[in-house]
Amino acid sequence: MLPNTGKLAGCTVFITGASRGIGKAIALKAAKDGANIVIAAKTAQAHPKLPGTIYTAAEEIKAAGGKALPCIVDVRDEEQISSAVEKAVEKFGAYTIAKYGMSMCVLGMAEEFKGEIAVNALWPRTAIHTAAMDMLGGSGVESQCRKVDIMADAAYCIFKKPKSFTGNFIIDENILKEEGIKNFDVYAITPGHPLLPDFFLDEQPAMVTKKADSYGAVPELKEEKTQPPPKARSGAVEETFRIVKDSLSDDIVKATQAVYQFELSGEDGGTWFLDLKSKGGNIGYGEPSDQADVVMSMSTDDFVKMFSGKLKPTMAFMSGKLKIKGNMALAIKLEKLMNQMNSKL
């Protein structure tokens, strides 16, 4: 773990989503230095399934040594953001550091505010265990994740940088290595267990592939199941599935071990399946003979774009074009398979 240096004492940090998860972890890390924390989040009343509110986070921040200003903020509401900033200035004089959720405008803002405000984006190399990950990943996903502490430590490294350090897209593990951190098992929920890659990174963490075989992450092959023969279809979707079928192998099946069902709307749509559990794999039109581990719903156009590499599955999911039910970890495995097939589609 990265030790605190006290450098953020008296600094004001404006953090969206600070009532829980990564946002709160960053807030608590800064609070240990004696920083002022503006907690900008939507949760003012306890949620039945999600822990924490802006007020409980404020109490934790004060206990850690910082000062707190809880503000009800929906980042989609410009008036709420402006109001929170005004309250921060009124209470703390000004705010010097900000953490926002998605950082799509990093390069533009870094150039616009050069010399005045540093703008950087921070991404985790692996999945981070949060309440959202529990909801998306299902039971047991936490063992494949790291703690929120790694993002808090990485953010702390950025906070210590001068304003000239701007316009960067930073991976948590990389910046911590620069700080001399070598043991990353301390950040793992289950040290030594294979880790899920982050949804937004193209690269696959070395520890995922290196440890998978030795840890038993690859289950034994099941006996071949009898699948209904695919009906005669035509069009881009059928052609996509044909190429996928030609690309299947025992190695892919062994590494994936999942049945995917696709609910496609639009021309050439309907229900399709991709069986990566049975020996050799199989595809077809209609429902699979075994229950699907993952059900994906989207339009046929977006399906073809996704498998051809023109639409990243993660971005499709985050934008609402792709809806996923079932095991999120297995959905991520399919994304890796898509990347291997892009050159053929």
UniProtKB/TrEMBL annotation:
Keywords: Mitochondrion, NADP, Oxidoreductase, Peroxisome
Protein name per Swiss-Prot or TrEMBL: Hydroxysteroid dehydrogenase-like protein 2
Domain SCP2 positions: 245-338
Keyword Iron-sulfur: no
Assigned GO CC terms: mitochondrion; peroxisome
KW Oxidoreductase (keyword) present: yes
Job of this protein: Has apparently no steroid dehydrogenase activity. Controls bile acid (BA) and lipid metabolism in response to nutritional cues.
Localization: Mitochondrion; Peroxisome
Family under the similarity heading: Belongs to the short-chain dehydrogenases/reductases (SDR) family.
GO terms of molecular function: oxidoreductase activity
Organism of origin: Bos taurus
Gene this chain is encoded by: HSDL2
UniProt xrefs under Pfam families: adh_short, SCP2
